[in-house]
Specification:
Blueprint lengths: L10 H13 L4 H8 L3 H20 L3 H4 L3 H30 L2
Helix pairs in contact: 1-3
């Protein structure tokens, strides 16, 4: 009996199989045959789905709001200072090369 080469399944595929397993319309063995994966793998994906389902609803909503305005203003100030510094420094370099 030869082993099948190791496959990396996409997260969407894993979710689909795990959701089908949760529905209970087919046995794990039937799903394994249908999706061509080992029954233990389906059981593991189902377990992972159940363990992490609450995370979907508990995620911090700040990530959906975009960047913090205060942080953006601070970054703009920092970049403005760097820009001013560099233009002064480049002006000095230009002046010293013009004197030669």
């Amino acid at each position: 009996m030869s082993k099948r080469p190791r496959r990396n399944h996409a997260p969407a595929f894993k979710a689909k199989v795990a959701l089908d397993a949760l529905k209970g319309e087919q046995t794990v063995v039937e799903l394994a045959e249908r999706y061509q994966v080992h029954p233990n793998q389906i059981t593991e994906w189902k377990k992972q789905l159940l363990e992490h389902a609450a995370d979907i609803f508990g995620q911090d909503r700040k990530s959906e709001q975009g960047p913090n305005v205060k942080d953006l203003h601070a970054k703009i100030g920092q970049l403005a200072m760097e820009n001013d510094f560099l233009s002064v420094a480049l002006g000095r370099i230009g002046e010293s090369s013009a004197k030669r």
